[in-house]
Amino acid sequence: MEIHQLLRLIGRIGAGVDETSTGRAAADAARHALVARGAQAVGPLLRVLTDEDPPVDWTEAAALLRRIGEPALRPLAAVIAAAPTPTAAVRAGWTFSGLELHSPTAYAPALAHPHPRVREAAAHALQQRGPAALPAARLLLPLLADPVAEVRAGAGWALADAGPGVLPLLREVRRARAPAGVRRTALELLAAVGGPAALDARDAAAVRRLIRARAPGEVPEPMHLCGPWFALPTGDLPAVLDAFGLSGAERVTMRLGASAWRHDQHSGAAHGACARMYVSPVLDGWTLVFGTATGEAHRPAGEPPGGAVLRRCTALSRRFGTAHWYGARCADDWSAWCFAERGEVVRFYDATYPEQTAGARHPAEPADALPHEAAFADGAFADVDALVAEAFLASYEAVTRDLGIAGPRTAALVAGRASVNPLALGPATRAEGAAVLALTACGRTFGHPPGALRV
């Protein structure tokens, strides 16, 4: 049967023309036949993939090209390099990243392709494979010196996601006569993938020198918010570390500290979310402490969720006069905050547990509804087209943010009115002192969580 006839059989199912068991069986047989044609089927499938109005759903063509594997690699690279439309480029890149290959080293020609989009796509494809990409790790090393920043970054991410198995290769690069930029990147990756234990004394000293070189004059950047943080009106770093029971403080860049907090909130490692805390420099008069201390992470059985936070804020306010706690999550609309003054909690709110709300409304809070009151009812968009609903919600969030109405990440808006909004950090933010990363009681027992961090 001709290739166009096989595609037509698959298209009948996609269009709902023949959804009988016989029709579905015929479509499956057509898919197997197209994969069996291998290189012969690649051209027709690529035409479907890049067609703005294809006769067969483009995802069918993408899945078949992925199954065909290596014969589709070079043709897809050509499409990525000279895609007729942005849509075609995206589709080709998605297909390219999931090709079924005998070995990840089959991406070698793409990693050395003259077009940077292809090199970047190949690095991304290896990153998608995680530790399975380790056999191709050495092929990524030249890309660490690529003239295009996106390609260099992609190679670094792929090496980091290859996991601990890449550490011997990175140590080899550190001792080789590689360009200075490549050796520096290898050092950052060693620290990120293996943690402090992966560094010998010479490299550990080099990381500290790198941080000392980058930290002075570092411009604050907006942070990705996902998790809890405290705000204290003090510049007494030793007192802050003592108040949270932190030790082993290491000076870091603000970028590294923010990266650690973000990483830890999504860590799947045991005690990954409560092993360390990032203490910021003094930002517009406030020291921010990001993370979960051991006391909040492991509260006594039966204690209300807010109990540990209330105790912590009470103790902090006795010591520093004022203590704020905030919480926000990137996966949903959760927001929470607590304000304590001179040893007394004056306001506590958690959108997940509104029944625990305590104290009078704070002047920094939204004037109308709190987050749990402002949410849309379940099923509010059940009869609305998905794209329309998505566009509306995006516009709604923008308006609530601009007008200060309760909604997603309300805690950040409250923080901006009462202390410092981490989302609004930037060149205008006054930064004094040093940023540090320090271990909690859990961290002293279990060590730093593994994973890549940005320096």
Describe the structure.
With 455 residues, the protein is an alpha+beta fold. The protein has two domains: 3-214, Leucine-rich Repeat Variant (Alpha Horseshoe); 227-446, no CATH class. It is 48% helix and 12% strand. It is built from 21 helices and ten strands. Strands 1, 2, 3, 4, 5, 6, 7, 8, 9 and 10 form a ten-stranded antiparallel beta sheet that branches. InterPro entries: ARM-like (IPR011989), ARM-type_fold (IPR016024). This is HEAT repeat domain-containing protein.
Protein topology:
Blueprint: H1 3-14, H2 21-37, H3 39-50, H4 58-68, H5 73-81, H6 86-97, H7 108-111, H8 116-129, H9 137-140, H10 149-161, H11 167-175, H12 180-194, H13 201-214, E1 227-232, H14 237-243, E2 247-252, H15 254-265, E3 276-283, E4 286-290, H16 294-297, H17 307-320, E5 322-328, E6 335-341, E7 344-350, E8 358-359, H18 371-374, H19 386-403, H20 410-418, E9 431-432, E10 435-439, H21 441-446
Antiparallel strand pairs: 1-4, 1-5, 2-10, 3-4, 3-9, 3-10, 5-6, 6-7, 7-8
Count the E strands: 10
Approximate helicity band? 40-55%
Structural class computed from helices and strand pairing: alpha+beta
> Total domains, how many?
2
Terminal Cα separation, in Å? 57 Å
Low-confidence stretches: 404-408
Q: Name the overall outline.
A: globular
Strand content: 5-15%
* Mean of all residue-level pLDDT scores: 86
Q: Nearest-angstrom radius of gyration? A: 27 Å
Total DSSP helices = 21
- Major beta sheet, specifics? 10 strands, antiparallel
Organism: Streptomyces johnsoniae
InterPro entries: ARM-like, ARM-type_fold
Protein name: HEAT repeat domain-containing protein
